[in-house]
Amino acid sequence: MITIKHLGQQPYQSVWDDMKRYTMQRDPLSKDELWLLEHPPVYTQGQAGKPEHLLNPNAIPVIQSDRGGQITYHGPGQLVAYLLLDIRRRNMGIRTLVGLLEAILINLLREYHITATTRCGAPGVYVQDKKIASIGLRVKNGCTYHGIALNVDMDLLPFHDINPCGFAKLEMTQISDYVDNPTVCEVSRRIEKYFLEHFNT
Fold first, then answer.
1. Where do the catalytic residues lie (predicted)?
2. Is 149 labelled a binding residue?
C-alpha cells in the first residue's frame, strides 16, 4: 500500500529534513508514501553536484542535497513528487524504479497529447530535445526518498542561470507550452492514479 499526501507549497529544507527523518525511522512495517507538493524558488545540488554548473549566482538560494544528479531548479508551478518507498520490500532495483517513473511521466503527458521520450544516460523525460521532467533519488537502507519534478506552468527563466542536471545549453519546457492553463493541482490528481496503479500493492 502507498499513502498519498498533498502538501501544498513547502520550503525545500524542511521537506528534505522530513524525508530523511521518515526514512531513518522506518521499520519493515512502515507504509510507503508519496508526497505531492511545490517549492518556493530554490536551486538544489545533487550529492556529487559540480559548482561550475551554477553559471550565474543570483538571489535564489542554493541547497546542497543528498540526492543523485546535478543542479536543478524548483519553483511554483512545478509538481514535485517525493517517493518514500521500501524498494527492498518490493524487490525492486533502482534502475527498474527510474524506468517506471519515466513511464508514468510519459503516460501522464500523453493525456495532454504531449509526446515525451527518454534519453539513454540522462534520466528524466524530454519533449523534442527539451527536458520537461527530472528524476533524482537517494537510497538509504533499501528505502528511497527524493523523486521527480515535472514542469507544469512555471517561470523557466531561473534554468537559464544553470546547466540543468549538468547539461550545458539544455533547454527546459513545460506542460503549459503545449496546453492552455494547466494547474499543479490538476496534474497532481492525474499522476496520483498512476502511482496507485503501480505501487498500491
1. 165 (acyl-thioester intermediate)
2. yes
The answer to whether 188 is annotated as binding is no
In sequence order, the 6+-apart residues with CB closer than 8 A to the CB of 29 are none
143 tagged catalytic: no
Q: Do the annotations mark residue 147 as ligand-binding? A: yes
**Is 26 known to sit in a ligand binding site?**
no
What are 17-56's pLDDT values in tens digits?
A: 999 999 999 999 999 999 999 999 999 999 889 999 999 9
| pTM higher than the cut 0.90 | yes
Q: What is the CATH number of the domain that holds 76?
A: 3.30.930.10
The domain tally of the chain equals 1
